[in-house]
Design goal:
Elements (H helix, E strand, L loop, with lengths): L5 H66 L4 H27 L4 H20 L11 H9 L1 H79 L14 H71 L4 H81 L4 H71 L8 H55 L4
Helix pairs in contact: 1-2, 1-5, 3-5, 4-5, 5-8, 6-7, 6-9, 7-8, 8-9
Length: 538
């Protein structure tokens, strides 16, 4: 029976109850048929026979009285009157006997009536002396009435009384048969009702347990999953409709577990990537600060070169020293520019890495959105199934009321799942928006870095020219006077280039500050995602 489906159990319960009701109907029909037979016998045979036989017996008594009155009449007229009444009574007796004979349905009754007719014929033959209309012999009539006529009257009246007694006995038997059939019908109906009630209670209890026990397990399981424990699985071990529910639920939970696990791994990966990006940004900001300091130092050196160029007229030694110092500072500036160029290249590589990781994060968020859409579809299908279950429970009437409550609870859980899915979808969209903003910021940052690289390359070329000029300054000490103006012009160009480099360094620092802000926002989003999925146990 454990392998029966819910539909089979419901059909079996109703079939068993209907079978009991059918048996009760058969028993009732059998008893009512017996009652009908006894009633028919009483109405068509016993009661009419009793009525007519009683009438026959009464007329016999009346004829006997009239016979005595005839004998004891005071005159001829009175005697003839009594004789006429006797003939009338005989006519009424004939009519009642015909009615009685027409109501006979039993063979023994017919035999008894024939015996009665024979005795009446004997009486009528013996009583002819009492009905003569000619010369009246009162003494002979009186002797006949006291002798043969009286004996024949007694025998005929006994036969009539036998008919009365026989019909009374038949009536009594029919009444007892009806009473016995009614009692048997009552007992049969009461027994069938008790059996039907017991069967209905047992079937209802078994059907209730077949539905409520697995539903209680499902409710407890959903309470655990609502708390975030996705390791739980449904194990009803049923072979009915709940087996399909178990398979679908476990499949959905497995997919949800995979989704949450992927989201957790993605959150950890996003957090790690954001930390790496933040470290790179801090390193880039430190490098930019160092570049600004170096640029400031080079600017001071350039101003010193200009002062030295103005004082070069007064002393060649000072010019030579200044030229050597300028050559050393120019070499230092070239080294700084080379370092700055490498730093810029690192910044560009880091920006490319950030863009790649942001693209990966955007793709993962898109995958999360697809899985969330799948969960929403599953929730909609669950809601539709619960609605169909509620409709089927409504069709089942009183027996489907518990199933209707279960279907309502499933529909409510499906609605909660849809709401949670909508929250996850909104969170994923916020992540995608933040990632898109981060990508745009990193693209802008990369453009600024490329522009800084171009300017650094230009400054490096200019510094290379300055270095060449400073290095060639020593052999041309004698030509200081002629080249003083050119040297002053070169120092001015260096000063302008350093101003441009300082501006580029400031722009680089600002870009790095904006990148740091975007990284901080991305860190908050990653922490929100991680905290959102950390409550689930997979």
């Amino acid at each position: 029976m454990n392998e029966w489906t819910i539909r089979t159990r419901i059909l079996a319960s109703f079939s068993l109850i209907l079978l009991v009701m059918a048996l009760m109907g058969v028993v009732s029909y059998t008893r009512l048929s017996a009652i009908e037979r006894e009633t028919t016998l009483m109405l068509k045979d016993a009661l009419p026979g009793l009525n007519h036989s009683t009438g026959i017996r009464g007329i016999w008594g009346e004829r006997y009285v009239l016979a005595w009155q005839t004998i004891n009449a005071a005159d001829e007229a009175e005697r003839r009157s009594f004789q006429q009444q006797g003939q009338d009574a005989a006519g009424r007796l004939d009519k009642v006997e015909q009615q009685y004979e027409a109501s006979i349905t039993r063979d023994e009754d017919r035999v008894a009536f024939r015996a009665y007719r024979d005795l009446r014929a004997q009486y009528e033959q013996a009583a002819q002396i009492l009905t003569r209309t000619g010369e009246w012999n009162g003494a002979a009539a009186s002797a006949a009435l006291r002798g043969t006529v009286h004996d024949r009257w007694i025998e005929a009246r006994k036969a009539a009384q036998h008919l009365v007694d026989d019909n009374s006995a038949v009536n009594a038997r029919a009444a007892r048969g009806i009473d016995d059939a009614v009692n048997a019908a009552k007992i049969g109906i009461e027994a069938a009702l008790i059996v039907a009630l017991v069967v209905a209670i047992v079937c209802g209890y078994l059907l209730l347990r077949a539905i409520t026990v697995p539903m209680q397990s499902i409710v407890n399981l959903l309470s655990g999953i609502r708390g975030g424990d996705l390791r739980l699985r449904m194990a009803l071990r049923r072979k009915d409709e709940f087996q399909e529910v178990e398979a679908g639920f476990n499949q959905m939970t497995g997919e949800l577990t995979s989704l949450v696990g992927q989201a957790q791994r993605t959150a950890i990966q996003v957090t790690t990537s954001v930390n790496e990006i933040a470290a790179t940004a801090r390193q880039q900001q430190a490098t930019a600060t160092e570049t600004a300091a170096t640029t400031t130092q080079i600017g001071a050196t350039s101003r010193e070169i200009s002062a030295t160029a103005r004082d070069l007229v007064r002393t060649i030694h000072e010019v030579s020293s200044a030229a050597e110092q300028a050559a050393g500072l120019a070499g230092t500036g070239q080294v700084g520019l080379s370092r700055m160029e490498g730093t810029m290249q690192h910044v560009m590589d880091a920006a490319g890495s950030v863009n790649a990781k942001l693209a990966t994060l955007n793709e993962k968020a898109g995958n999360i959105n697809q899985v969330v859409t799948t969960i929403a579809k599953v929730a909609d299908q669950t809601n539709l199934l619960s609605l169909n279950a509620a409709i089927e429970a409504e069709k089942a009437g009183e027996y489907g009321r518990g199933f209707a409550v279960v279907a309502t609870e499933i529909r409510r859980l499906a609605d909660q799942t849809a709401v949670a899915t909508y929250d996850i979808e909104q969170m994923v969209r916020e992540i995608q928006s933040a990632v898109s903003a981060g990508v745009m910021g990193m693209d802008k940052f990369s453009e600024e870095v490329r522009r800084g690289m171009s300017e650094v390359t230009q400054v490096g070329d200019q510094l290379s020219q300055i270095i060449a000029q400073v290095q060639s300054l020593a052999p041309r000490v004698l030509m200081v006077n002629e080249g003083m103006q050119a040297q002053a012009g070169g120092a001015e160009q260096i000063n302008q280039a350093l101003m441009q480099l300082s501006e580029a360094a400031q722009q680089t620092v600002e870009s790095l500050r904006q990148s740091s802000q975007a990284i901080d926002e991305l860190t908050l989003v990653a922490n929100d995602l991680r905290s959102g999925v950390s409550r689930f146990k997979v």
